[in-house]
Amino acid sequence: MTGYVNTKIIATVGPSSSSFEVIEQLASLGVSGFRINFAHGEPSLWKSWIEIIRETEKSIGRPLAIIGDLVGPSIRIGVLEEPITLSPGDVAEIVYGEKAKGGSERIIPLPLRRVFEVVEEGDILVMNDGRVKLRVIDVRGLRIRVEALTPARITSRKAIVILNRDPGLPALTERDMQCLRFALDNELDYVALSYVRGGEDIAVLKTLIANEGGDVGVAAKIETRSAVENLSSIIEESDIVIVARGDLGMNYGLEEIPLLQEHIVYETRRRGKPVIVATQILESMIDNPVPTRAEVMDVATAVKQGVDALMLTGETAIGKYPVEAVKWLRKIIRRIEERYPPQKFPPSDHQWAYASSIVETAERLNASHILVYSIGGTLPPKIAASRPLVKTIIGVGDVARARRLVIVWGLHLRHVVAEGYEDGLHKLIKELCRDGEIHPGELIIKAYREAHNKHVIIVEKMYGCN
């Protein structure tokens, strides 16, 4: 992999990317994190993927983040033996249950009793990222008759949204609790909560994690009307925000999605929090080796907005060209970053102001690198929030901290075990010299934050690597 990009790439693991060979190739091409969707598969399969990713870390010599995606209060159909194909005007039935034959029987299983209690005649059900719409024409007990308003191909475990209606489901289901325990037991780096409605949903999840003695970052997926309305409280409670455009497109008109993405990214970035854009990044590459021009423009827009990472979903999980998708995404990111520096926001707190001063010093002095040794892991995200135009390398003694930071904009992580900040910087510089990353004659900025709010910035010219 030549050169580097600041906008990180996250790939979803699935049948197309479940081997060591493919995952190693994706990581070598620049993927910084991998997502496991807990809506599909089961623990033994997820565990095998985790083992492959951790083995890949050793192979490529850098940390990789793993994100476990909790289903949350979503509505998903059960398992269909055969897909159901509908044309506009066709009628199907949704019945309470886990499985159904599907196909010409046109019976859709739904294992969530609450839906049958709240849905009403005339409601619109939306599926497949907004492409499929069904109108409820009759509700009788645990059976719902629907009429297709659009062409539809319905497959297992697909999400359903009841348009303009909140079914009032709990933030976490029993299955979510099982998946959360799995994530903590297997030392995942983040858990993402789907269908977040407000900051209290994230607070509940964080409390559960603390009660289990866990240490994992929490990402909030913004995909409902309630989440957009309560965005400020969600950003405040979350470690990372994800613009989940698929389900946003089922809750809003598609023409609203560009405006919503811009709003969510702006509000998250101005508060100094990392933000990821996900869903349909290069979706045509599920079946084709080259993206569309519209997809290239979409990626360019997200990069210019300054997002921390772009998350591939079906492209790498079930697509025919997972490696090509990552190659294209990295190529687009790199070209746009060469031309458009990201917008900078004024710091909104003391630590961010310190981080901003590090970045400003490095840029004004035309330094070659910003070097930081971090123990607590709180300073590097604030440096990233200042969007440095100088390459920023972070030394971290705790590999779990390194994995958490690796998907944040512009941060290059090195696992360096040290006895303190000064020892950590010394060892980091020695390692970078050995690898040919820094050279004599270059100006570098060294920084760290000690206890009791002691902030240190050192300007140093490299006279040698001894």
Automatic annotation (TrEMBL):
One of its GO terms (molecular function) is kinase activity. It catalyses: pyruvate + ATP = phosphoenolpyruvate + ADP + H(+). Residues 354-445 form the Pyruvate kinase C-terminal domain. InterPro entries: Pyr_Knase (IPR001697), Pyrv/PenolPyrv_kinase-like_dom (IPR015813), Pyrv_kinase-like_dom_sf (IPR040442), Pyrv_Knase-like_insert_dom_sf (IPR011037), Pyrv_Knase_brl (IPR015793), Pyrv_Knase_C (IPR015795), Pyrv_Knase_C_sf (IPR036918), Pyrv_Knase_insert_dom_sf (IPR015806). Residues 6-326 form the Pyruvate kinase barrel domain. Keywords: ATP-binding, Glycolysis, Kinase, Magnesium, Metal-binding, Nucleotide-binding, Pyruvate, Transferase. Its EC number is 2.7.1.40. SUPFAM superfamilies: Phosphoenolpyruvate/pyruvate domain, PK beta-barrel domain-like, PK C-terminal domain-like. Pathway: Carbohydrate degradation; glycolysis; pyruvate from D-glyceraldehyde 3-phosphate: step 5/5. Pfam families: PK, PK_C. Belongs to the pyruvate kinase family. PANTHER family: PYRUVATE KINASE. This is Pyruvate kinase.
